[in-house]
Amino acid sequence: MRNRRAVPPSPLPQRHGIDPVRLRLPADGAWATVRDHLVDRLSSAVDPGQVDAMLREGRVWGADGPLAPGAPYVPGAYLWFHRELLPETPVPYAVEVLYRDEILVVADKPHFLATTPRGRHVTETALARLRRDLGLPALSPAHRLDRLTAGVVMFTARPEYRAAYQNLFRDRRVRKEYEAVAPYDPELGLPRTVRNRIVKERGVIAAREVPGEPNSESRIELLEHRGGLGRYRLVPLTGRTHQLRLHMSGLGVPILGDPVYPAVLDSAPDDFRRPLQLLARSLEFTDPLTGRARRFESRRTLAAWTSHREWAGEETAAPR
Q1: Which three-class secondary structure state does DSSP give residue 39?
Q2: What span, in angstroms and rounded, lies between the C-alpha atoms of 179 and 302?
Q3: In sequence order, what DSSP letters do the residues of 198-253 get, joined into one string?
Q4: Residues annotated as catalytic (active site), given as ranges
Q5: For an engineered disulfide with 106, which of 14, 97, 99, 166 has Cβ 3.0 to 4.6 Å away?
């Protein structure tokens, strides 16, 4: 078996809790200089003048330090640089830490905050905030929650622990329980298990149900109802994108505050009114390193159930 070349550690520190970009120069490259390669490789994001400025200002590093503007192209070499961070609308709600030790950090994520950097959400993410606030630059996610979903999300403090906990989710050895507020339909027979096939196409906001072998499964129960609303327990047995939201909408009881199901709605990035009424209530599993039974539970409530008038108001709604 061919030995794989070890990736050297980054010579650049994180910035605002975000790792620098790491690139490896192709082994079959025909560029004369690093600059020539970066101009070609980054052409969709930056212009040649920006590449020149990055090199002139010492912002592109190799394993041994910053690279000069005329640095020769070395096939297989690694480069690092920090991406330009665009302004982001601050999410005005805190990430609460439910549990922390030398292995795990379990957080109670608010609505509207992404779990990890993606797209236009980079520094305003739970991962970046926790890295900064806890002083844990190696923190990494064991799983993810949708940006609009609040509740329990788990991270590992060091990279050597990550695979063990990620594999729990991959192998469906974590019991995940969610809570939702949605319309109450007395004709809808519950509890029930929903199974169907879900596809999510890249670049398309909404997932959809299609004919074929089921790849998603959710248990849906009604906990209580009043005033035309129901409070539901949702237990996903698989983890497809938007699975619970799509299943609830498919039953005719879309989750309150959902801007995608049953119809995609426009929303401003700084509109924090009427958050999606979906909460990751708890995670339960056997710890893969210690063998201990673990259960972590959110302290948050769903505002549309505890104070529907406040949640539905134009100015006073605030996820909790």
Answers
A1: helix
A2: 8
A3: EE--TT-S--EEESSS--EEEEEEEEEEETTEEEEEEEESS--TTHHHHHHHHTT-
A4: 146
A5: 99
